[in-house]
Structure formats: structure tokens, C-alpha cells
Amino acid sequence: MFPWSPEFAWDAYHVAFFGALYSVLATVAGTLAVAAWRARRDAREGQTAAIAWHGDFAEMPRSARHCRHQLTGEAPDRTCGNGFDCRHCAEHPRLEALRRKDEPAEPAERFGFSLPQDRLYHRGHTWVRPEADGTLSVGLDDLARRLVGTPERVELPAAGERLQVNGPAARLTTRGHEVRVLSPVEGIVVEASGEGPAFTLRVDPGGTPDLRHLLSGAEVRAWALRELERLQGALGSSALGAALADGGELVADVGEALPGDRYDALLGEMLLEP
Amino acid sequence: MDERLLPRGLSRAPFGRFLLWLVPWAALLGVGLYAAYLCLALGLNQTNMDNRFAFGLWIYLDLTVIALGAGAFFTGFLLYVMKKRELAAVINSAVVIGFICYSGAVAILAIDVGQPLRAWFTFWHPNVHSMLTEVTFCLTCYLTVLAIEYLPLVLRNRQLKKRPSMLVFEFELHKVMAVFALVGTFLSFFHQGSLGGLYGVLQGRPFAYRVSLAAWPSTFFLFILSAAAVGPSFVLATTWIVSRVSGRVLVKPSVFDLLARVSGSLLLVYVLAKSVDTLVWINHTSFRLGVHPASFYAFAPFGTWALFAEIVLLGLVPALLLVSARTRRDPRLLVPAAFLACAGVAMNRFVMTVQTLALPTLAFDPFLSYTPSWQEVASFLAVVAYGVILYSLSFRYLNLFPQERELAAPKEA
């Protein structure tokens, strides 16, 4: 006897109807249960940050997902499909081998903001500097600092917290808009110091860090140029007055120069949080 | 005021203007809810239906919105099963529209059938020989599936996705969406078919009765085919409307092109099948039932123009327009063609519901006429208002069109 059916009889109609009904219900409930179980497992295994980035990356426009080898010319039409994590990209080693290594690394000061050559850069506008003691220093690059201005609130991870590549490294609230900063490295936070957007995190990577996904040397210049183009595109032509294309420089506080309704979109666009 | 809830990087109207947009729809919803209360509290004497004209405006419009809502299942089928990736651009919107259509239809059925608190009786005491039982089962299950498909969209809201539990659940739910798309396709096929089938089995109504193919009358298959054919057209038409109302480019032209191509091709097959079915019905079925087919068109206002309008004007014409690559490139022809296709399915459901009941079946029967009462009209308009409100909220707070951000982004040099 099927449950919930006092009038059930073993004939073709009843069997077909209830068979279909319960099959559908079991499929729907079973699939939901599987999704819920997997979600619980993901949360337990600490996959939340990776999943958040996966979703954010998928929502980003194509113009924000250039492959680093597009910037340097090895793959002119290539869009990244790996969440800017070249460590897991099958094509990266081949394209990296094609890259000209003899190009001089130019300091980025000439674009109106500072990108010192002694560090590596993440596409989410953070930098990484390997320290002599084996730790990594992580901070917000100059372009991002000019974007966020003077935040009302800066939430940094406490010492002992674990960071993941492309997981959240900090959360800033500036002019009422909240934005998260992506972590360029993985490891345990040893120390958080600095004021406002000039914060620095010291991270213990727990061994030799794999930093292949970070930009370095001559490609930083190409990336900085592209970021300025993106910034100008997002701003429109007049918001900042004279800008790079006109021979000008980026103003010190971009947020100050922008109407509030566009500022939030710009933060998301440049710090990769759509 | 509500900036924190808006998808980042998507421009939306100021909150005040959005509220103003909602006010008339909310008023319409209020009037409709009052009408629905009258029908539920006082009974169907509030309507102009009677024992002879038992299917009126509600059932006609239910059948129409369910056919148009097929865009949800068919877009999901094309995307997740047939791997037409371009349709990811409209799947969210299609799911919301499907949910609105089906929940609206169920709400109207609850008023029409009455005693909504006893709705579960249909599962407890099912008449397993009835097409309507199959319809009830499929509608209920498919509405559940649509609600599940809607859930990930809601969980991707800017504030909700900050909650880790919501985020991981949305992610995992998205990964199993193909299963729901398949279940939705199965359910939608069956209830579209059963809705058509329930007319095709009416031997006492020669105008609707059709010969059987396998276990089902031909209308079973024609309803499935017509719903699958116009579903993509409805998705196209609604996307165009939302784009015009919001003043934003929402999808790339290639998406419209694919929707139109699919819709046009299926519509051509449908028109062919419908023509064959009509010829068989005129030359064989109606004579077998002792009725000359010309007599069906002897009563004004349902002349042969209705048949011509249904099959040629609102069937063949939009089908040809939609399959033509030249037409698809010109929005001035493409969009009207999609609207014509939708009007075609509405016309078909009108003919099957209203014309079928209006025509006399016995020599002494009069031709019946029926005008819906204000309660019937208002309660259905409430469903329209509910749909507009829910869609407006979804468009404002959820990312219904993934290409919108891309298309709003500055073009690359």
C-alpha cells in the first residue's frame, strides 16, 4: 500500500500515477538533500571563500577577466577561466615560456601612482613582498588606496587566522560603501599593522610559497596600464578631469572626485567584487 | 535608500521612482485580492460562469500563461540539457517569469476550484483516470521545482551572498540545476499535454474532440508543441519589454537570434502538425461524430476567420518571420513576430476553451455567450499585478540578466 492514499489499488492507473508522483518527489527531495549535504561539507572544509570568489569571478564582465598573457601579448584574445589563479592553469607554463623576459621592468610612477618593483602584484590590487624571515607582507597597492581614500572602517584578520588565495583579506567601508579586499596569498596571519588603507599583513605561508599567480617585473607595467584604462572606462571621460590619456595623473582621492552612485560600482569593478 | 540591496555595478532607478512604479500595480493587486475574497467567501455566484459555461476567463488565461510560462522549462532544457550556453543570458529571467506564470495560475485555480484549504484532497483521493489529476500533480510539482530554481537567484542577492551558509548552498544548488531542469521538462511536457488532452477527450464536444495517437488525443501533443514553440518567443518578448521599460541593454543580439530561431523552427513544425490535425478533424472526426464542420463556424463571432487567424495569421506568419535570418536581424520585425507567436498560443487556448463551450452540442442547444464579471476580471488582473511587482523586485534586487553588466561595461579599445 502506498502511503497517503487510502484508496490505492494495484491497477495500472494507480501504479502509474503514484509511481510518477513519488518518483518526482523523491528526485526533487533527494537532489535538494544532496545540495544541502554538499553545502554543509563545503562549509566544514573551509571552501566558503573559494566558492565566494568563484561566484564573483563568474559575474565579472569579460573586460575585467583578461588573461595576464593577453596583457603581455602572448595570447592576444585570451580571457582567464581560472579565477586569476595561474597555479592551476594548464596553459600558463606554455604561455609563460613564450613571454619575453628581457623587457626592462619599468617603475609605475610614471602613470601617476606607485607600483614599486620590489614586490609582486595581485589582480585585486594587493601587493606581496617576501621578507627575509620567510613571511610575506601583504598590502593594498597605491591605485586601490587612492580609490578607497580614507575608509571609515577597516576590518583586518586577527593574528592566527588563515588566508586563502582569492579569499577575503580585509573588508573596508569607505563613504558608506563596503568592499572586500582579496588575499593574494595563503597562509596564517602573523601580524596586522598600519592605519587605514595603508595596512600591512604579515603572513606565514608555512613553507615555500607558490606565487606563480602574481604579477611581477615587466608585466606589472602592462597590467597597470590596462587597469588605468579600465578605471577611465568605468569613470567615463570627464569625472576625473585630466587623466592619463590626456597626459595627466590620477588624483590622490578618486572617491572624492566621483558622484556617490558611481563610486560603489567603481569599487566593485577595480577590487573585483561585482 | 536601498543601495545596499542592489546588484553592484548595475544601474537602477532611484528608490522613489521605483515605489511610484509599484503603486498602481499594488492598487490593482488590492482590488483583485478583494474580488478573490468575494469569490472564496461568497462562492462562484460572484462570477458569470454557470453549469453550462464552466470554463471562463480564468481557465482561458490560466492555459495561456501556462503555455507562455513554458519559456522557463524550455529555456532550461535548451541550456542545461542541449547545452545552448548562450541562453544563460536569459535563464534567470525565464525562471522568474515561469514562477510568476505558474504561481499565478495556481492562485487562480485555487479561487476557481474553491476551498483552497482542501487542495490536498486531490492527492489523498486522486481520480487517477482524470487528465485534471495529472494536471494538478504536474502543476504542483513544477511550481515546487520553479521555486527551487528561483532560490539560487535570491541567494545571490548582494546581502544574502555575504552569509556563508547561503553562499555555499546556492553554489551547490546551482551545480544540480540540470536535474531540476530535466524534472521540470518532464513535468511541463506532461501537464501541457494533459491540458490539451482534457479537451481532446471530450466526445460530447465535437468541436474539441480529436482522434487519439497512442493513448492520447492529438491535442495532447499539439499543446506541448505550441507551448515549447512560443516559450522562447515569450522570453524574447518579455526581455525586450524589460529592456525598453528599464532603458538598459540586457542581452546580446545573438541571444534574441537564438531564441527566435528555436521558436520559429518549432512554430513551423507546430503549424504543420496543427494543419494536418485540422484537416483530419474537418474531413474525418467531425463527420464521424455526426456534425458538419461548417456548422462550427456558423455562429458569430466565431467565423472561419478564427481558424485563419489562429493557424495562418498568428501561426504561419510569425513562424516564417522568426525563421528568416533577415527578419531576425531587424528588431522592428523580430519583436512583433515574437508577440504574434505569443498571441497565437493565446488565440489557440481561447478557441479551445471559450469557443468550445460557446458552441451548441445538441440540436436544441442555444449558442452560449459569456461575459466575465468584474470579480473574474479583477482577480485575474491581480495576478498580472502580482507578476509585475514580483518581476520588478527581482529585476531590481537580483542579477536577472548576467550580460547586463558586461554590456554596460566600457567597450575594449
- Radius of gyration of chain A, taken over Cα atoms and rounded to an integer in Å: 24 Å
Overall residue-averaged pLDDT value of chain B? 92
In percent terms, what proportion of residues of chain B is strand? under 5%
Assign the CATH topology of chain B: Formate dehydrogenase/DMSO reductase fold
User: How many individual helices of chain A?
Assistant: 7
| Protein structure class of chain B | mainly alpha
Q: What would CATH call the homologous superfamily of chain B?
A: Formate dehydrogenase/DMSO reductase domain
Spatial separation of the terminal alpha carbons of chain A: 53 Å
Annotated CATH architecture of chain A: Beta Barrel
Strand order of the largest sheet of chain A: 1-2-3-9-8-5
Low-pLDDT segments, ≥5 res of chain A: 237-242
Q: What count of helical segments of chain B does DSSP give?
A: 15
What is the total number of structural domains of chain B? Answer: 1
Outline the secondary-structure elements:
The complex is a heterodimer of chains A (274) and B (413).
Chain A: H1 12-44, H2 48-59, H3 68-71, H4 92-98, E1 120-122, E2 126-130, E3 136-140, H5 142-148, E4 153-155, E5 162-163, E6 168-174, E7 177-182, E8 187-193, E9 200-204, H6 218-235, H7 260-270
Antiparallel strand pairs in A: 1-2, 2-3, 3-9, 4-6, 5-8, 6-7, 8-9
Helix pairs in contact in A: 6-7
Chain B: H1 15-42, H2 57-68, H3 70-81, H4 91-113, H5 121-124, H6 131-155, H7 164-175, H8 177-200, E1 212-213, E2 216-217, H9 218-246, H10 253-288, H11 304-323, H12 325-329, H13 331-358, H14 374-397, H15 403-408
Antiparallel strand pairs in B: 1-2
Characterise this structure.
The complex is a heterodimer of chains A (274) and B (413). Chain A is of the alpha+beta class and 274 residues long. In chain A, the strands form two sheets. In chain A, strands 1-2-3-9-8-5 form a six-stranded antiparallel sheet. Chain B has 15 helices and two strands. The two termini of chain B are 36 Å apart. Chain B has a single domain, classed as Formate dehydrogenase/DMSO reductase domain (Formate dehydrogenase/DMSO reductase fold), CATH 1.20.1630.10. The model of chain B has no long low-confidence stretch (mean pLDDT 92). In chain B, helix 3 crosses helix 8. By secondary structure, chain B is an all-alpha fold. At the A-B interface, helix 1, helix 2, helix 6 and helix 7 of A face helix 6, helix 7 and helix 8 of B.
